[in-house]
């Protein structure tokens, strides 16, 4: 990915041709993402192919919180006993169909994890809402675990992601 793409905050990029195979996610990028950024309800980052200046993918990031009761027992063992835990929500994630299966979805999630880890506010995990079983399979491959009571919602503990980043510096 290095050199061929950059990931940057959504700005004056052309979004008209973006097509990920899920129309609501295309529409969101075209019509809603900038409004959400302006109103401070989500940040939006785009993956841009440098040679063509086209958007190859995007994700949104926002603060959220998780009731500790929703987490599996195993995850709770590594956390303090607070009833509510701070987290970061990757509310939307999409890669243009022309770029599927090249590792870009995984790269966008890694970028989201890094931004949260480097930020000034903290979050114990990244949270995602999978739209279907394919998305669940994708997120599980990226290391996400489902919540006990909500199998379409998954989380990635950032302490784990951080350890991986330290052990495998690029
Ligand atoms: C899901 C999505 C973001 C994945 O993006 P991507 O760049 O193609 O994913 P990656 O190349 O990083 O995939 C890594 C691995 O995840 C798995 N994977 C990717 N897409 C998958 C799918 N649709 N079903 C099952 N597994 C999938 C594959 O094992 C893949 O590795 P492989 O290509 O070596 O087999 C993309 O398919 C997309 O935008 N889909 C439409 C919108 C969507 O479903 N968004 C998910 C949020 S609800």
Descriptive overview:
The protein is α+β, with helices and mostly antiparallel strands and 170 residues long. It has a single domain (5-167), classed as 3-Layer(aba) Sandwich (Aminopeptidase), CATH 3.40.630.30. It is 32% helix and 28% strand. It is built from 5 helices and 8 strands. It has helices at residues 23-38, 73-76, 104-118, 133-141, 158-167, and strands at residues 5-9, 43-49, 54-67, 84-90, 93-95, 125-129, 145-146, 153-157. Strands 1, 2, 3, 4, 5, 6, 7 and 8 form an 8-stranded mixed beta sheet that branches. A hairpin with a 6-residue loop joins β7 and β8. The radius of gyration is 16 Å and the shape is globular. 29% of the residues are buried. Mean pLDDT is 93; it is low at 166-170. The structure holds coenzyme A. Coenzyme A (COA) binds at residues 20-22, 25, 93-95, 100-106, 130-131, 134-135, 137-138, 141.
Number of helices: 5
For the record, the count of structural domains works out to 1
CATH architecture: 3-Layer(aba) Sandwich
Query: N-to-C terminal Cα separation, in Å?
Result: 12 Å
Instruction: Please identify which CATH superfamily we are dealing with.
Output: Gcn5-related N-acetyltransferase (GNAT)
Give average pLDDT, whole number.
93
Largest sheet: 8 strands, mixed
Low-confidence regions: 166-170
What general form does the structure show? globular
Percentage beta strand: 25-35%
- The value of Rg in angstroms is 16 Å
Overall strand count? 8
Order of helices and strands: EHEEHEEHEHEEH
Bound molecules: coenzyme A
